Amino acid sequence: MVPGQHDRRGEAAARPALSGRRWRTRALAEWVDVVPAGELEPGDYRVVDVDDIAVAVFNVDGEYYAIEDVCTHDGSELTGGCIEGEEVICPRHGARFNLRTGEALTPPAYEPVPTLPVRVEAGMVQVMDDRWD
């Protein structure tokens, strides 16, 4: 009998112990609308919630890039920092990240920030977090 099912007498099967972990059930990744493409000017960004994760979508000379909005150095937001070409500069400690690759370019950050796929569909900029699919 599968845990969670009931037998003919109505007794439930034992559920395995999860040893303190919480399991999250989620559907496969879906595209999330961010903003109409005409409203996100070059050099600008928008932050959107994707599965409880803040994702920043940047327009760099007409190309869209999405990264998790978190500095890998101290966990603060990257948005609000200066954008120079394909780089965003963390407003707290000055670490630079490549918006296209997520690569940490300068200390104090050494770990890359996750990047996410972006597309424009029917004039809408969309992002998807497919890391766990």
In angstroms, what separates the terminal alpha carbons? Answer: 28 Å
What strand order characterises the main sheet?
2-3-4-8
Largest β-sheet summary: 4 strands, antiparallel
CATH topology of the domain at 42-127: Rieske Iron-sulfur Protein
Give the overall silhouette.
globular
- What would you call the structural class? mainly beta
Output the number of helix runs: 0
DSSP strand (E) fraction? 25-35%
Question: Whole-number radius of gyration?
Answer: 20 Å
What labels describe this entry?
133 residues; mainly beta; Rieske Iron-sulfur Protein; 4-stranded antiparallel β-sheet; 3-stranded antiparallel β-sheet; disordered N terminus
Write up what this structure looks like.
The model is unreliable at 1-26 (pLDDT under 50). The protein starts with 31 loop residues before the first strand and ends in a 6-residue tail after the last strand. Helices cover 0% and strands 32% of the residues. It has no helices and 10 strands. It has a domain at 42-127: Rieske [2Fe-2S] iron-sulphur domain (Rieske Iron-sulfur Protein, 3-layer Sandwich), CATH 2.102.10. It has a 4-stranded antiparallel beta sheet, with no helix packed on it. It has 133 residues and is mainly beta.
Summarize the structure.
With 133 residues, the chain is mostly beta strands.
